Amino acid sequence: MNNTLLSFIILCNCVHFTFARNVKQDIGLFEQRADSCLMVLDNDCALMNYELALSMANDENEGAKIITIGIKIAQLNFQLGELDEAYRQYNTSLRLSNELGLEKEKAKSLKGLADIYWRYGENVKSISTIINSIEIFTQLNDTSSIIEASNVLAEIYTSVGNTTDAARIYDDMLNIAIATKDTVNIAKNYEYKGVIYFFDKDYGKAIDYYKKALNLNEKTNNKLAAGINNGNIGEAYSKMGEYVKALNYFDKAIEIEKEFNFNSGLIFLYYSIGETYTFLEKYKKGQDYYRQSIDLMDQIGETREKQHVYSLMADNYARQKNFNKAFTYHQLYTQEKDSLFNATKFNQLEEIRAKYEIDKKDQENYFLANENKIKEKDLALKQDIIKWQNLVVILLIIFLAVAVYLSIRLYNNRKLLKKANTAKDKLFGIVAHDLKGPIGNIKILVELLSANDLNKVNSAERDQIMSYLQTSSQSVSILLNDLLAWSISQQEGFVFKPMRVNLLECIQQAITLFNYQIQEKNLKVSNEVSSEIFVYVDHDVLSTIVRNLLSNAIKFTEDGGAISFRASQKKKRNKAFVEFSINDNGIGISKAKIAALKSTNHFVSTDGTANEKGSGLGINMIKEFVRGSKGEFDIESTPKKGTTITVRLPASS
C-alpha cells in the first residue's frame, strides 16, 4: 500500500477516535480487524490495522494491550522474513513487560528473540534466551507454551549436531501434547521426530512421521504447517532417489508457503529443489534454484544456511567437470562455514551453566558456615562479654583485612583469567577463520589433481590450479610463522638477539615472497632504500615487521596501485637511528581506526580490496616487535588517498 495513503488513513482514524468515548473498544476493533485479515492471508491489511491499534494505545493505561499487539506485529514480521523489524518489536515488548511485571508476555518476547538469534546464527544467545523463556512458562504452568519453547530449544540443538538431546526433548513434549490432547503440538512434534530420523538417515521413518503430521494439519486446516510437512516429505524422497515424488511434494509446499509469504521455508525449498535437479543431472535448473535461495537469504538477512547452499553449488559444478567454478564456490563455502565457532560457543554455554550451579552451591555453603560462626560468637559473648570484647574487635579487623586482601587477589586473578581467555579465543578465531580457508583450498586442489581427475583437465586449468595451490600453501606458511611468533611474544618468552642487518636485503626478500600477490593485483613496488643502511635488530623480528607491513600494503591497495619503501639515517639526542617507511596509494585508514590501532592491543581486522581476509594480528605484532627492538611506530593516512607507516629502529654503526 502507498505510504502516503497509509499515513493519511492513520491520521484520519486518529482524529476520528480522539473524539470517541471508549478508546479501548476502538483499539479492540482494529485488533479484531487485523486478526480477520490474517485469516484470509491479507498481511498488509493485518499490519495496517495492528499499527492503527498500536498508535491509539496509551503507554500509561494500555501497557498490556501495547505489548500484546506488539508481539502480534513481531510474529507477523518474523513470518514475512523481516527479521530486523521483528527483533525491534520483540525488544520493545520485552522492555515493557519487565516494567509492568507481565511474566507471560515477557516469556513470549524472549521466545521470539531466541528464534531470531538462531536465524542469525547466534546459538549461545539463542539457547540462553529460550531457557529463560521456558523457566517462566514453567512457573506459569502454561503447558502449550512450554511445549513450543522447548521445541525451539530442540531445533537449536539439532542445528549444532546435538540430536540426542533434541530427540529427548521432542519425545517429552510429544507425550505432554498427547496427554493434554493438544492437536497442534502433537502434529508439530510428529514433524520434529521426523527431522531427527532424517538426520539419522532413516528416511522411511522420517516420511512416516512427516505424513502423520501432515494428516493432522490437513484435518485441522493448518495450511502453513501442512506446507512445511510437504517440503520435508519432498526432501526425504529426494534423498531416497524418488525424485518425481519429491518434486510433486515440493510443488505443493511452494504453492502454500508463497501464499503465506513464509520466506524462511522458501529458502529451504529452493535449495532442496536445486539439489533434486542436480541429482537428475539438470544442472542449470539446479543452479537457478540455488541462486533463488541465496537471493532470498540476502533479501531477509537469514544467512544461517548460506554455507550449505554454497557447498551444494560447488558439488553441482564439480559434477559438470567445471572445476574452476566448483573451486570458487568451495572458497565461499569455507568463508561462510562457522561450525567450529558454534561448537565452541555451545561448549562455553554449558561451562557457564555448570559454573553457575557450582557457584550457587558454594554460596549456600558460605552463608550456612557464616550463620554457624555467628551463633558461636553470640554464645561466647554471652558467657563473658567484657573479657572477649577487645579480642572480637581484633578478630573483626583481621577478618576485614584478609577479606580485602582476598578480594583484591580474586579481582586480579579474574582480570588475568579474562585476558588469557580473550587471547585464547582470539587465537582460536584466527586459526578457524584464517587457517581453515587456505587448508580447505589445498585439500580440494589436491583432490582435483588426483590420478583419476588429472587427465580430465586441460593444461591451462592445471596451471591455474597449481598457482592456487602455491598461493594457499604460502598463506598457511606465513600465518603459521606469525602465529608462532605472536604466541611466544604473548607468553613473554621471545628473546631478542640484535645484530647488524642490511635493511635493503630484508625488504627485497619480503618483496620476493609476495611476488605472486603483487603480480595478481598488477602493483608497482619500488625499493628505494640504500644498500648502505644497516639496523641493529633481531633478524627474524625485522623480517616479520617488513613482511607484515608489505602484506597490509598489498591488501589495501587497489589493482594497478603503487607501493614504495624509503629509508634514511638520522640522529636524536646523540643516538643514531634508521627511519624507514612504506607508502601506498590505497584505500587509506580513517582517523578513528588509526587512533584504535595506536592505542589498543585489540585486534582490528578489515577485508582487503580483493576481499582478502585478515586477522588483525599483523599490526599488533609490528607494534610489539618495534617496541621490543627499542624503536618507534607511527601511522599517517588519508582515506581514498593512501597510507604511510613509519618505523624507527636503532642504527648499526
Under CATH at level 1, the class of the domain at 495-650 stands as Alpha Beta
Shape: globular
Rg, please?
A: 32 Å
Q: In this structure, how is the largest beta sheet organized? A: 5 strands, mixed
Q: Which fold name corresponds to the CATH topology of the domain at 495-650? A: Heat Shock Protein 90
Distance between the termini: 79 Å
Kindly report the spatial arrangement of strands forming the biggest sheet: 2-4-5-7-6
The SS-based structural class is alpha+beta
Task: State the total count of DSSP E strands.
Answer: 7
Low-pLDDT ranges: 1-12, 14-21, 339-349, 351-368
Q: Give the count of helical stretches.
A: 26
Please give a structural write-up.
The chain has 653 residues and is an alpha+beta fold. It has a domain at 495-650: 2-Layer Sandwich (Heat Shock Protein 90), CATH 3.30.565.10. 74% of the residues lie in helices and 8% in strands. The chain has helices at residues 3-18, 23-39, 43-56, 63-79, 83-100, 103-119, 123-139, 143-159, 163-179, 183-199, 203-219, 223-239, 243-259, 263-279, 283-300, 306-319, 323-336, 339-383, 385-448, 451-454, 459-490, 503-513, 515-520, 539-555, 591-599, 617-628; strands at residues 498-502, 524-527, 534-538, 562-572, 575-584, 632-638, 642-650. It has a five-stranded mixed sheet with strand order 2-4-5-7-6. α4 (63-79) runs antiparallel to α5, α6 (103-119) runs antiparallel to α7 (123-139) and α7 packs antiparallel against α8 (143-159).
